[in-house]
What does this fold into?
Amino acid sequence: MKKIFFVCLMAIGAVSYAQKLVYLDESKDIEERVEDALKRMTLAEKIDVIHAQSKFSSAGVKRLGMPDFWTDDGPHGVRPDVLWDEWEQAGQSNDSCVAFPALTCLAATWQPAFSYMYGYALGEEALYRGKSMILGPGINIYRTPLGGRNFEYMGEDPYLTSRMVVPYVQGLQSVGVASCVKHYCLNNDEEYRHQVNVIVSDRALHEIYLPGFEAAIKEGKAWGIMGAYNLYKNEHNCHNQYTLNKILKQDWGFDGVVVSDWGGAHDLDQAVKNGLDMEFGTWTNGLSEGASNAYDMYYLSKQYQKAIVEGKYTTKELDEKVRRVLRTFFRTTMNKQKPYGFLCSEQHYQTARMVAHEGIVLLQNEGNVLPILPELHPEGMKILVVGENAIKMMTVGGGSSSLKAQHEISPLQGLKMRIEASDFPSKGRVSLDYARGYVGDTSGNYNGVTTGQDLKDDRSPEALIAEAVEKAKTADYVIIFGGLNKSNYQDCEGHDRKTMDLPYNQDKLITSIAVVNKNTVYVNISGNAVSMPWRKQVPAIVQGWFLGSESGIALADVLLGRNNPSGHLPFTWYESLDQCGAHSFGEAAFPGIWREGKKIIDEEYKEGIYVGYRWTDKQKLKPAFAFGHGLSYTTFKISNLRATLNDTTDGNMTFKVDITNTGNCLGSDVVQLYITDVKCSVDRPVKELKAFKKVMLKPGETQTVTLTTDKRALSFWDEQTNDWKAEPGEFIAQVGDASDKLTCKVKFRLVEY
Ligand code: BGC
It folds into this structure.
């Protein structure tokens, strides 16, 4: 009896105690919980939560029941675990993931709904792996095709990037995993990423480089953002008064955490005052090297604590940082409503496949060489596959986005699987042969993850080409899988490419084959444009990106006509580097000019707002393939553009346009709307993308597409007032399915009232 009485007393005590623990009460407003937790924390606990305790985690508050906080790369799948305090692999057996297509491919789908699915699937994988924050998506603008990390980003256009980043963030965060959008900001090349001080006009900053981040924060409500390595206005972006305190937190009202890029913090005072909330990776070079057990030496660690105790700082800044961290805890680790996580589920593979299917871009298809339809060859046919990229695993390498994929289907395997499938039309009558053609990177190892592939081949380049050419002579079709890979100085973090040319003698290989086989198809695997001096000699060209786990299947489906390609380029594919604005002003504009002492290199974005098609339009240049370009196995007609109003006073406009599938198979097209300001007090681009919609149509079907725009679509960043401004007057809207194929236009006016 006594015992029961005692238990009852304990229970009552526990209940009333729990009632006081506002921070644990999920029915309470999150801000109330934050304040409650904050006032319970000691100085040491506060310091603990604002810096790393291992390569990818920071401490929770154990005494208050708040678990450690785990982050991980990002952005194309969940990175395998490394050891607590070392960069070596932890050797887990449960960290093989689904590798999703790289973000250039996601952007090429022009399908915001797919971006949501992508984020959602990635979030489920992260949850399974116990990660509360994914270090992604990366959305730096593609300023030059030499940019080593362009493959991780969403292309050159701020509007397309904005529309694609918002649903990614929303999908990921819908399962209680924070997105850490990166790299904020102006981290547009890699070579000197730690030393580059970017000089850019306010207009270019606001019109080109910031809109993606602004959308991720204001519309996507991202809970995290990563400061970039480089400097702007002579301050590192991980603790930058102007970009973090002023723009991000004050102007955009960001209430989440600013995370430093790994090793991106450099100064105690700036780390305290200039907007950084969580410090990671100090004492590393960002990726591979690291001092052991350096966590106490971080800027936002013991030295900060000591400075507070000694009265150098009050706890004002500290409390503000901790509030943001706590808010993140309540949104993620402490959120009991989170769903379960799943790793490598069939839905995740399906998502990866769908994104790959929709992102592959048919760049050129002279004489309709593609699709390769076995039905047209009842007597059977021979397909020759050539190139290292037909067999090379691409999910390993490239830097921090490198993955340990549960599986990766190579292009050659994918073709084989489809051709041998029981439902393949000419099963048994299609033969597949392979020739290596060139040897590129045979290493297959990144940060302790190995592909297990033995790609060594000691033959000379001439011998490899001779073999491929010999076989090509008797093949009905030749499919060359070439392009770049994820090794240094290609599509890889830490360096930029040195030229736009294809590496490893591939130009020679491709031209030699094209001469002997008129049905040559070139599939380019990369995240960047490459120069194609042989473009006119090769009838069919496909942009195959880095497609992740389902790569081979997705490519085979497009090549064999099981899937009609519908990807459109998220960047301008220059004929050569001289067509790119960033390369038109000498080294001051790229890669920059070293200051005395060689510690800082100033890179001035002299092309200003004229990035990508904005530059080629202005200079009247004809790129190899324009921004927004992408062909299909069917054809479309876009016509009858009309605006519901001729005049607008608030800047909002609604347009309607008809699109018809004029060919003979089901297909999707991207209806793109560009706006031109006819007369303006400042120089404006010839046209700018301001709305788009992807539609799927049956042969003969017509749909009316509605596109809406708002005042921002008419505005420029006014450097006089530091705000957006739309000047009254005439505007033109043009619609088509590529930036160089706008088939209809309509005029309207913005009128003052
Ligand atoms: C990269 C980040 C990455 C971080 C952690 C850095 O070197 O720039 O994108 O998230 O490492 O791996």
